[in-house]
From TrEMBL:
Keywords: Oxidoreductase. It comes from Paenibacillus radicis (ex Gao et al. 2016). InterPro entries: Nitroreductase (IPR029479), Nitroreductase-like (IPR000415). This is Oxidoreductase. It holds the Pfam family Nitroreductase. It comes from the Bacteria. Residues 28-75, 84-167 form the Nitroreductase domain. GO terms for molecular function: oxidoreductase activity.
Amino acid sequence: MTHIVEQISTEVQSHRNAEHGVSSLFLNRWSPRAFDSRKVADEDLNAILEAAHWAPSSFNDQPWRFVVAKTEEQLAVFHNFLGEFNQIWATKAPVLVLVASDTKRENGDPNGAHAFDAGTAWGYLALEATLKGLAAHAIGGFDRQQAKAALNLPEQFELHAVIAIGYQGDKSSLPAPIQEREVPSGRKSLSEVVIEGSYK
């Protein structure tokens, strides 16, 4: 069932302030590392993946691929190629999803937009997870070659991130140094990232 996000959560209020009117969904979405052991219902997981699949893509090529791990056996394979730091916390997430993209179009031509499109799909996934009352955290620290071999992925696929998905847990379950980072991050001012006309 979808949880409509209408107001900024108390946790977010002290860390995030938008300069302009924007849906609270965008502020409430952040990337915690503390996960609860509660399982994610297949219905919710499928809805999250469905949302990702409706992202726009160049020529509607839909180059993204999502490799899902949710059983103990599947998760163990993913845990092996996560970086050492990420193993500390991500192994508690009940679902891990590897996001990859096909670097070739169906006719064999290079797809210069594949990574851009896969990134958009990840954004859709993250927002739908928030609407479902779940957390999603993208992990860049993993061994891509090991993952590609372990998951039998085609050579032409580029691997982008492993997404940890689950219900947010208590930060006390994390080691002390990581607990300190368990807050919604702020953003640079809009004027620092928006350029009108041309770069000066």
